[in-house]
Each structure stands twice: as structure tokens, then as C-alpha cells.
């Protein structure tokens, strides 16, 4: 896969600090996004830049995913999320993200066979679940058992992996994750594990291993399988989001792939990130319990003295509709209708969306529903318990994490991530012995 070359345009950025001017190269990407390359700034001027939350700073160049927040565009390797969600399997999308091209039939068969060869949990791993405290959150369990894989596959933990070893980490994690994530649910309920099957798709295998099959059925309901396929694809990647950046940061120290992904799981857990899908449903249920009157929640979300946020709304990049939330919203109606489910939470969510989109506070800040706003409603319709929602997000996002981990390690730009800071603490002062401190 050829990494697109970045055109170093003739244009230069110019920065003048303390009367000193410095020409800085401008980088232009394949979608005409532009950046001023400041990698020489400190050496030449002694200045660094400051950007808490890094909303204006590029950490890398990448050829995996393109987002246009203003136009609400999301593409994986140039293919629109709408077309992929409509027509691709999750395994095809995972291959596309990781290796850069849609697989041929032979490539897809080979990749699928490799994943199947790794779909069983290694002997002894189940005991780790049994040692965890009862009631532990499934994201904590998932992070712990993912980290433990470095103990089951020690040959795949050396810091300088060959291409073959890197691919082995990728197919091992991709192969095992449906069983690992299903086990997080089964063990949290004290249920026996269900073995994976080689005749089921990636998502259908998860659904079967987590929730078993309805009596007399040999596979999960096709409506569920298709909705789940779309959810996995919609969650697969999202460029430099918090958890993917975490995987890159940890991987940049040459910690192994299992440790890097386990770190990404921990970052995803936060309610401002992947944990929002659980938080949205809990918020909607709270509104329902208090009679369905949501104006006070909108007021709290706008109140600067309140830490309450309208969960599932807002996004660092999208200042337009998150294209994924549009797809999920349509799928919600279809899945609930096909399954004959009338979920008042969906009606409440639509009313809340309409009210927020008509409210100046949200309009002025370009706060729209994000991927998490409706996803919980579909997951609940599929019978997935709320506390498993973010585990499902991780199941989908694994392919994106691995794509970025691989791209980072193979990049000519590769170096350990180590930002600078501006120190604001005490200036030098003499040590005061305890006796003199009173
Ligand atoms: C995901 O990055 C990704 O790509 C993530 C993701 C992915 O696929 O990986 O898309 C998945 O994490 C989606 C986001 C899920 N999180 C939530 O739904 C939690 C609720 N949303 C917010 O916490 C917030 O919108 C964030 C965290 C998503 C974005 O935070 P930012 O970019 O730091 O935005 P901000 O806090 O600077 O907000 C700008 C303004 C502020 O008001 P002012 O100070 O300008 O007056 O908008 C307000 C914020 O207070 N605001 C909200 C709000 N989100 C932003 N006010 C009320 N409710 C909200 N949800």
C-alpha cells in the first residue's frame, strides 16, 4: 500500500516572535487540509505552541480516515461511510482500514481464515475473569484480559516486530476479540462461555457467544446481524480520537500491540468518549423516570455551573451532523419496526434532539447528535445490556486502533510521543528540613 506523499507546497507559513521571523513549511494533504509544520520552531526560536486538548494540532499524517467536520463527511481509505455501512461486511472494512485496500475474494478468504484460526480463547485465560471482583465494569475486565494476552503470546511482544509478527498481532487480536468481548458479558453474569463457530460472520459470532441462540435457531436473527454489522462498521475508525491517539502514544514507546490496545480500551471507557453510549441511555432513562420532561435537562446542559452535559451531543470535529448518527437513526426505526419493538426511549430521544437543534445554545455551538446518541437504542433493541455498550464500541473500534498502530510503526515520521509544557509552578527554593517546618 503506497502512503500518499504529502505535497510540501512552496507556500511557507511565517511566524514572528520577539521580533524574530521564521518561515515554516506548509503541509497540504490529499483533501487539501493544510498545516504549518512547527517541528523546527523550538530549536529556532525557543518558543513552543500551546493547544490544550490538541484541537488545533496535528499529531501525525495519516492515510486511513478522512473527516470533514463542517460538511459531516466520513470516509475510510476514500470510501464513504454510507456506502460501506450499506454494502460491506465488517471483516472487509477491517481489512480495508488495516491494509489500505478493499480485499479481493482470495485476500478476504485468507484474512477470514486467519481470524478464525485465532477465535478461541487461549487455555487459562478464563481463569483471569474468575479472579476479577464481582460487578467489575466490563470495560475494566476487557482491558485486563487484553493486556494479559502479552502473557499468552510472548513471542508477539518484542519491541521491533517484523512485518509478519505485526500481522500476527493484528490477526490474533482481531480473531480473539469477539470471544473476549462476549466473555466479558458471560462472566459478568456468571454464565458459561459459548464456543465460537467457524460458520458465522464476525458480528454473528459475537451475538451467539454473548447471548446464545433463540430456541430452534441455528444462527442469530438476520435483522440483528445486519444492524450489528452496521454498528461495527460505523464504530470502526475515526482518525485521531482520544482512544486511537492513546493507542498511538502507547505504541510509540514500542510497548507491544496488546498493551497499546488495552490502553485504548481504557481511554474509550470515559463518558466523554466511548462511554457516552451508555451515558446516553442512562440519561434518557433518568428523564423517563422523572416523567419525560426534559426541559430541565436542557437547562442543566446549558448551565455553566452544572457539570451536566447532554450526552450524545457535541463533537470535537463535527460541527454538522455526525454522518454515523444519521445512519443509526434510520436503522433504529427499521430494526425496531422489524422486531416489533415500540421503544418510548427512541421517541424521547427524537423529541430531545428536535428541542436541542431548535435551541440557540446548541445551534450557536454547532452541537449535533454524535454517534453515541442513537446507538444505545439499537443495542438495547438487540438485547444488549447497557453496561456492555462501550464493549461493543471497542469491538468495532479494534480494527481502527490496529490500523493506526501499524501505520504509526511503519511511518517514516515514527518517533516516541513526548509533548512539551509551560511550567507554572514554584521557582527554585531551598529545602526546608522537617524540624523547621513545624
Ligand atoms: C465520541 O473524537 C472522536 O472522534 C470521538 C468519537 C469517535 O468515534 O471516536 O466520535 C466518539 O467520543 C463521540 C463523543 C461522545 N461524547 C459525548 O456525547 C459526551 C457529551 N459531549 C461533550 O462532552 C463534548 O461535546 C465532547 C467531549 C464530545 C467534545 O468536547 P470539546 O470538543 O472539548 O468541546 P467543548 O467542551 O470545548 O465544547 C464547546 C462548547 C462549550 O461551551 P462554551 O464553553 O463554549 O460556552 O460547547 C459546550 C461546552 O460547554 N458543549 C456542550 C456539550 N458539548 C459541548 N454543552 C452541553 N452539552 C454537551 N454535550
Q: Would you kindly provide a written description of the structure presented here, covering whatever features stand out?
A:
With 438 residues, this protein is mainly α. The chain has a domain at 7-58: Rubrerythrin, domain 2 (Single Sheet), CATH 2.20.28. It has 18 helices and six strands. The chain has helices at 41-45, 81-87, 90-99, 105-117, 125-131, 138-152, 163-188, 202-211, 222-234, 242-251, 257-269, 276-289, 295-302, 323-338, 344-357, 360-364, 371-381, 389-410, and strands at residues 7-17, 20-28, 34-36, 65-68, 73-76, 79-80. The strands form two sheets. It has a three-stranded antiparallel beta sheet. A three-stranded antiparallel beta sheet has the order 4-5-6. Strand 2 and strand 3 (34-36) form a beta hairpin. Helix 6 packs across helix 7 and helix 7 (163-188) runs antiparallel to helix 18. The radius of gyration is 23 Å and the shape is globular. The chain starts with 6 loop residues before the first strand and ends in a 28-residue tail after the last helix. The model has no long low-confidence stretch (mean pLDDT 94). S-citryldethia Coenzyme A is lined by residues 53, 238, 241-242, 272-274, 276, 301, 309-317, 365, 367, 370-372.
State the main characteristics.
three-stranded antiparallel sheet, 438 residues, 18 helices, Rubrerythrin, domain 2, binds s-citryldethia Coenzyme A, 6 strands, globular, mainly alpha
Helix tally equals: 18
CATH topology of the domain at 7-58: Rubrerythrin, domain 2
Widest sheet: strand ordering: 1-2-3
C-alpha geometry: globular
User: How many E strands?
Assistant: 6
* CATH class category of the domain at 7-58: Mainly Beta
Amino acid at each position: 500500500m503506497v502512503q500518499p506523499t504529502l505535497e510540501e507546497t512552496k507556500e511557507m507559513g511565517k511566524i514572528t516572535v520577539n521580533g524574530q521571523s521564521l518561515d515554516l513549511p506548509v503541509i497540504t494533504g490529499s483533501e487539501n487540509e493544510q498545516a504549518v509544520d512547527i517541528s523546527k520552531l523550538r530549536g529556532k526560536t525557543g518558543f513552543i505552541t500551546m493547544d490544550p486538548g490538541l484541537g488545533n494540532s496535528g499529531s501525525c499524517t495519516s492515510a486511513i480516515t478522512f473527516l470533514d467536520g463542517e460538511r459531516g463527511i466520513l470516509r475510510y481509505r476514500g470510501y464513504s461511510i454510507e456506502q460501506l455501512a450499506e454494502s460491506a461486511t465488517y471483516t472487509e472494512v477491517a481489512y480495508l482500514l488495516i491494509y489500505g485496500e478493499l480485499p479481493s475474494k482470495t485476500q478476504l478468504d485468507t484474512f477470514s481464515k486467519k481470524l478464525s484460526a485465532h477465535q478461541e480463547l487461549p487455555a487459562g485465560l478464563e481463569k483471569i475473569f474468575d479472579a476479577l471482583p464481582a460487578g467489575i465494569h466490563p470495560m475494566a475486565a476487557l482491558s485486563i484480559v487484553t493486556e494479559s494476552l502479552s502473557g499468552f503470546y510472548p513471542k508477539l511482544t518484542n519491541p521491533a516486530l517484523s512485518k509478519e509478527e505485526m500481522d500476527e498481532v493484528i490477526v490474533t487480536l482481531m480473531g480473539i476479540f469477539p470471544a473476549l468481548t462476549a466473555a466479558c458479558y458471560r462472566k459478568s453474569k456468571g454464565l458459561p462461555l459459548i464456543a465460537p463457530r467457524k460458520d458465522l460472520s464476525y458480528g454473528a459470532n459475537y451475538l451467539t457467544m454473548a447471548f446464545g441462540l433463540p430456541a430452534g435457531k441455528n444462527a442469530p436473527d438476520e435483522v440483528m446481524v445486519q444492524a450489528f454489522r452496521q454498528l461495527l462498521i460505523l464504530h470502526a475508525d475515526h482518525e485521531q480520537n482520544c482512544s486511537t491517539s492513546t493507542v498511538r502514544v502507547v505504541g510509540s514507546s514500542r510497548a507491544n500491540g496488546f498493551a497499546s490496545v488495552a490502553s485504548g480500551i481504557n481511554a474509550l471507557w470515559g463518558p466523554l468518549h466511548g462511554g457516552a453510549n451508555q451515558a446516553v441511555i442512562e440519561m434518557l432513562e433518568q428523564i423517563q423516570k422523572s416523567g419525560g420532561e426534559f426541559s430541565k435537562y436542557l437547562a442543566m446542559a446549558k448551565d455553566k455551573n452544572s457539570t451536566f452535559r447532554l450526552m450524545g451531543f457535541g463533537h470535537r470535529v463535527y460541527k454538522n451532523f455526525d454522518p454515523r448518527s444519521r445512519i443509526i437513526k434510520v436503522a433504529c426505526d427499521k430494526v425496531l419496526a422489524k422486531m416489533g419493538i415500540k421503544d418510548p426511549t427512541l421517541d424521547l430521544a427524537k423529541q430531545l434532539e428536535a428541542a436541542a437543534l431548535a435551541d440557540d445554545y446548541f445551534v450557536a455551538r454547532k452541537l449535533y447528535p454524535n454517534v453515541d446518541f442513537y446507538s444505545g437504542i439499537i443495542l438495547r433493541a438487540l438485547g444488549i445490556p447497557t453496561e456492555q455498550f462501550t464493549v461493543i464500541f471497542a469491538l468495532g473500534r479494534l480494527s481502527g486502533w490496529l490500523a493506526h498502530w501499524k501505520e504509526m510503526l511503519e511511518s517514516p515520521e515514527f518517533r516516541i510521543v513526548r509533548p512539551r509544557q509551560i511550567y507554572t509552578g514554584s521557582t527554585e527554593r531551598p529545602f526546608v528540613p522537617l524540624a523547621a517546618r513545624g
